[in-house]
Amino acid sequence: MKYYFTYIVLCSDNSYYTGITNDLERRLVQHNEGIKRDCYTFNRRPVELKWYLQCTNPSEAIKIEKQIKGWSRRKKTALIEENWQDLIEFSKNYTEYGHPDNRHLGTD
């Protein structure tokens, strides 16, 4: 069975990079060797693997990658740290629930 991985690495500039691959170990080596000059991680090496999810369906891995790429840094950090309560909080729709800083004021 072939596996696909959605992953998050921490770059040397403290930014996150999210990607997918079918060979996680090889891909991390490629990021750290700087194979492509135009790659996001090229000038942000070394990178360190912080999180990954193994999938059997490439479409699912791509879907999860795109979803995570749209997340805020604090939401990605909550995922990496397995802080499920913060992940839920950072996932709330502020249009529907109001911003957490304003909830105590009774305004959105």
From TrEMBL:
Coiled coil: none annotated. Gene3D superfamilies: GIY-YIG endonuclease. It holds the Pfam family GIY-YIG. InterPro entries: GIY-YIG_endonuc, GIY-YIG_endonuc_sf, UPF0213_domain. Residues 2-78 form the GIY-YIG domain. Belongs to the UPF0213 family. PANTHER family: UPF0213 PROTEIN YHBQ. This is GIY-YIG nuclease family protein. It comes from Aequorivita ciconiae.
